[in-house]
Amino acid sequence: MLLYLSMKNRLFLAIPAVLDDYEAIINDFSWVVSGRWVPPQNLHLTVSFFGDLLSAEALQEKLSALPFEVTPSLIRGLGYFRKSGILYGKVENPSLERVYREVDELFGLPVKEHFTPHVTLLHSKFFYDEEHFYGQLALYRDKPLGHLENELLLMQSELHSDGAKYRAVKRFGHDHH
Would the CA dihedral through 116, 121, 122, 127 be positive or negative? Predict the structure, then answer.
């Protein structure tokens, strides 16, 4: 229980993601790698993780001052972070760097050097067949997979035994202020 008390808020700023055929990706990789797939309704790009830095109310107030411009973003191709064992969708949108910078500056967070905009799909545990995993990855190198929504969400993550449950606290974007 103590583990959760120190990070009870677990708040983060995210852009929701939509994949055209997530089931096909899962089918193409499930025979070569084991792990926990992110449920489709939880797919997102994390802009900034705040933890319990501030309350949800304080974050909403500060974030409302930013003129968010989220331009359409494509998810094209898959990548794999070896260190953390994460299979991800690559996000193509250079203007996202501006959003990261604005949020980091507003909250005095360290600037993300060499940050790769991505949507986490799988937290891998082990390979059944590592060679074929990388073969599958190559087949998805430049494949169009989906897009990011044109809105930012302040999300709250609650840890459960079967993974994290996310809840939207506040929406920001063109139609939400």
Answer: negative
